[in-house]
Backbone:
């Protein structure tokens, strides 16, 4: 798992590359949680993620909850169709704003 964090204006862009599974999900959560501060804007880019296990879904839910507690904003982009389908089936999809591009995600966070 590769985690790349960059600042795009006032947005923290987190690019994930690799599978999000039981081994990597805690690493992702450890990298993302410190970014979630009051009023933070977080763009979680899953463009490099082809597979996400249930541990990855739990990581997304934990991130969503932290964002809510901090009155921050979270947008996902680059969500593969298989992951989107799994999120839909499990009821996770309605919790998240998902955009088709980084630019659209930045606009949604503005």
Residues:
């Amino acid at each position: 798992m590769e985690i790349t964090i960059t600042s795009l204006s006032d947005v923290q862009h987190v690019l994930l590359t690799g599978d999000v599974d039981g081994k990597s999900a805690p690493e992702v959560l450890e990298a993302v949680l410190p970014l979630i501060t009051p009023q933070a804007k977080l763009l979680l880019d899953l463009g490099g993620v082809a597979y996400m296990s249930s541990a990855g879904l739990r990581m997304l839910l934990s991130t969503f909850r932290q964002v809510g507690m901090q009155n921050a904003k979270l947008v996902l982009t680059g969500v593969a169709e298989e992951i989107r389908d799994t999120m839909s089936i499990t009821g996770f999809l309605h919790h998240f704003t998902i955009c088709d591009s980084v630019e659209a995600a930045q606009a949604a966070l503005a």
